[in-house]
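[step 3/7] fold_predict: job queued, chain A
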Amino acid sequence: MALQLYDVSVASFLQTLGGVSGFLDRGLAHCRDNNLDPEEIVEARLHGDMLPLRFQIISVAHHSAGAMEGVKKGVFAPPTEQRPLTYTQLQGLVADTRESLGKLSREEVNAFEGADVAFQFRDFKMPFTAENFLMSFSMPNFMFHAATAYDILRSRGVPIGKRDFMGQMRLKTA
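[step 4/7] structure written:
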């Protein structure tokens, strides 16, 4: 059986979002256990010229559920979310993103194969097919921001490892 668009996009987004949810939970527990303010981590960066945890989590949501919305509409743009979010609001954003993706059916997503999708930023436009947009633009961005969020928490002493990042693997069933 050939790979289907749903499996390489939505199922992969959901797997990693499960990991993101888990490592955010562990980050909050670490803050509570060590009498640390989780709101300080929201604005933490790996380096001064990088964007903070808040932006990384917003981008994870944008490049997964937002990407699927872009595929439906035929156009995708950079995130516009600017409001400050608390640590628990970021956790809520991840939960909402997972819920949104969970509502997409396999048939609905697979039907997007071959559809036109454009990344648009102001007057700049990049044309894609749905599958090429998801696999060569959205998925790499999604993984970059998920890994950066993980790295920010790890750099702040949160005891997480690769298994926390990976989420629930999709194992072969009997």
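[step 5/7] annotate
The first helix runs from residue 5 to 8.
The first strand starts at residue 75 and ends at 76.
exit 0
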